Amino acid sequence: FNMKVSVVPWLLRAALLAAVLAPGRPLAVSSVGSEVRLLATPPSALAPVLASQSRAQRVWKTIAEGLDPFGMDMPQELGREAAKLLREAFPLEAARGELCTGVDAAVGDVAADGTTKILVHLQDGLMAETVLIPTDSRTTICVSSQVGCARACAFCSTGAMGLIRSLDAHEILGQLFAGMQEAQRRELPPLTNVVFMGMGEPADNLEQVHLAARTMVEGFRLGNSHISVSTVGPSPEAIEALESLPTRLAWSVHAAEDDVRRVLVPTTRHSMVELRDAFARVLARRRDRGLFVEVALVEGLNDSPHHALALAELLRPLPGKTRVNLLPYNPFAPEASDLPRAQAHALFRTPSPETVKTFQDVLYSEGFVCTVRSTRGADSASACGQLANRASLSQSRRPSKEVPPAASS
Ligand code: SF4
């Protein structure tokens, strides 16, 4: 294999382009225009660069085990030619002698149930968060796709920050890599599941989320059905764009009635029927097994049997098996200067367990699988809607220059 050094990075970029682009998808500019990282180069993109599928698989087997190929004796472990080509293709990482994950992870609070918040320091000084959720048999990681979020959900502490910036694929995958290493260090059950339910709206950063999800499947060898991308569904167009994700889809519905939905997700610009119909088309084309649906229940706002019946009516036309997950509201404390949110927060209460049970029973009787998410990690502020700590919230004072693609819809 006789390739000039200067050609290798371009070959890598071309291979990455071919791997990332699906028919009809726009160019993933931020991935191919900037320095390419090994962590965001799935095996199918790495193979042409290493001139061998098996070399690419060997490199990825190492990473999927939580090991850093640049931190080991590469000629010994991967073979001399593969090591040489890898160094040429990723000069920054070769010079540093380690994978560039783009994140510096620090373990934060560990809740009584083992749920662990990991603070993710990014290279530009910003911070995101990720959460490890161990159970008896497996560990799930909840990753962030953005710092802050433009969707401004009234019950969400990340929404209080506004959007600061989107994460690159290697920064999303860096959270997974750090989570795997932490799970191994603490001898937690294997990390097999990923949910995109941390900070940010994945549909507003779809190119990078798509590359990250694809790499999780191809490189980290996680099952497609073990990865779930959760979205508020900013617009019918944004929902249709989720079709090619190699993951399960989850819709944060929160309310079936348009007026109630706009209280909870103030950036909603479309009726719930329009959004539901877009999901129905996507699920039918994907031949999906069904949609996960999330509902943050707030006392007196969307938690009555009447609301549950309206939700059942909204969801009934969806193809496949729809599973509803109820999330009783997790209180958080907005900054006093954020008056509208502070006022909303003052009005929001967690519904009683009896109210939640009644809501669940209505959905059961309407034929839906319906679970109630325990507020795991609530004592360490790791529960849903709480992924913004004091340091993160202070980031919101920086102006956002980014307009998410779906924001104008
Ligand atoms: S709930 Fe999700 S979409 Fe809504 S503001 Fe929070 S992070 Fe964004």
Automatic annotation (TrEMBL):
PROSITE patterns: RADICAL_SAM (PS51918). Pfam families: Radical_SAM (PF04055). One of its GO terms (molecular function) is RNA methyltransferase activity. The keyword 4Fe-4S applies. Keywords: 4Fe-4S, Cytoplasm, Iron, Iron-sulfur, Metal-binding, Methyltransferase, S-adenosyl-L-methionine, Signal, Transferase. SUPFAM superfamilies: Radical SAM enzymes. GO terms for biological process: rRNA base methylation; tRNA methylation. Residues 389-409 are annotated as: Disordered. It is found in: Cytoplasm. Its main location: cytoplasm. Residues 1-26 form the signal peptide. GO terms for cellular component: cytoplasm. Residues 135-360 form the Radical SAM core domain. InterPro entries: Aldolase_TIM, Methyltransferase_A, rRNA_lsu_MTrfase_RlmN/Cfr, rSAM, rSAM_sf. This is Radical SAM core domain-containing protein. It comes from Rhizochromulina marina.
